[in-house]
Amino acid sequence: MLNIRMKKHQAILFILFIVALLGLNSFFMFTNRVEITDMPEMVDHSHVSSQKLFDNSWKIIRDNYYDEDLNQQAWGRWKEHYHGQIKTDEDAKVAIDTMLASLNDPYSRYMSKEEYNEQNNSINSKITGIGVNITSIAGKIHIVNVMEGTPAQFANILPEDIIIAIDGKDVSGLSLSEVANLVKGPENSFVNITILRNRDKLTKKVMRKEIKIKTVKSSVLDKNIGYIQISSFIGSTTPNEFLEALEKTKNTDGLILDLRGNTGGLLPNAIFIANLFIPKGNLVSIVGRDGYKYDINAQDTEFGINKPTIVLVDGNSASASEILSGALKDYNKAKLLGTKTYGKGMVQKIIPMPNETGLNLTIAKYLTPKGTDINQKGITPDIKVEFSLKDVKTNNDAQLQAAKNALSKMMISKK
Predict the structure, then answer these.
(1) Separation CA 142–CA 122 (nearest Å)
(2) Does a cis peptide bond (omega within 30 degrees of 0) precede residue 199?
(3) Which pLDDT score, from 0 to 100, does residue 17 have?
């Protein structure tokens, strides 16, 4: 069983120790990315010319990108091509985006001041908005859930409402990020959300507030099964949230860890949680661009999870989710149930750039404890359970039910 009387500062010290083990100039690795971010100051407030901003980016990519051959191209051609051509920061962004596109790497990207600030807010687990999660279904923007105690809840916005306009602007054809950006805005400002509920068209005037993002939720199922859902590993508070979830579910005999839809986040978060299950041995291996491989090993801790565990995964479980689930599978600490994971095994570094911008750059790849490269392959679950269209329509979580059934058998077997 687990003794979870771990003070928050102990969790922080543990993560700082993991960061030191990485030996990467006090940078965090992030996995969605496995990305790395400077702590605590993540913003370069210095100001340089737009041309200098491009030149700096060109050099950083040349010296740090995982593929030393830079996708088999003469990297100097980009500096020559844009020499003296960059007049504004927007010019720099277009040029850097074009340069990065030549690497044929979907994970490396340049972030404008606004985009970089938004990412840092995600890491700090806070945004300014109304408190809803949205998804796109058949081109329509559906509200998936409404966070407790948020402006959206007070305005009586409900799950399954369909957003059709924001401040009078039709959202048809817009991407999720475009819709999210329309909803976000300065704290205490108002936004008008027009929704479709059944056949009724309603407009809600909602005041934006700072939303503290919770990445971990927990409950007790069937009186004896702990259920913990980690929606993302990106938040700096995720380890403490996970410890709180373990405390709430400590009197159960089995655990379901739900990583479905979790596309990644901060690497130390995944390592921290993996170490609670795995007290000794290699948790993940990082392979740099020079081929050097170093292992991140579990650290001695008085805490440990030793109960039957099922991990729910799907095609959107990526990167940090795969680091955690891969480690648990390799050490036979849990059974994976669901569908094959995404297959994201590359490591990015978040690099603060002048003018308060940033660069996410692929600098390495990772391997599971057994040395498995899962990039573009994913992890095959021990128990395959599909999520059918019928399940979606009837709001039936067949995978969760299968997990409860399998876990009950594991609990009986252990007894």
Answers:
(1) 21
(2) no
(3) 46
Q: Structure tokens of 128?
A: 């300014």
Q: Is the dihedral of CA 126, 152, 264, 240 positive or negative?
A: positive
Pick the catalytic residue: 93, 307, 329, 344?
A: 344
Q: What is the pLDDT of residue 28?
A: 40
Report pLDDT digits (tens) over 283-334: 999 999 988 898 999 988 777 899 999 999 999 899 999 999 999 999 999 9
Considering its fold, how many domains does the chain have in total?
Answer: 2
Active site residue 319: yes
Q: 34 pLDDT exceeds 70?
A: no
Q: Which of 89, 253, 314, 330 is catalytic?
A: 330
pLDDT at 126: 64
Tens of pLDDT, residue by residue over 341-385, are 999 999 888 899 999 999 999 999 999 999 999 999 999 999 999
* Interatomic CA distance for residues 326 and 284, integer angstroms: 9
> Which of 319, 321, 329, 365 is flagged as catalytic?
319
* 96 and 27 within one domain: yes
Determine the 3-state secondary structure of 215 from DSSP. coil
- Both tokens of residue 81? 């091509």
Q: Are residues 257 and 182 in the same domain?
A: no
Boundary (domain end) residue, out of 184, 212, 240: 212
Q: Looking at the structure, do residues 184 and 319 belong to the same domain, yes or no?
A: no
Cβ contacts of 142 within 8 Å, gap of 6 or more: 134, 135, 136, 160, 161, 162, 163
Calpha distance 225→162 (Å, rounded): 34
User: Which domain, by its residues, includes 236?
Assistant: 1-125+214-415
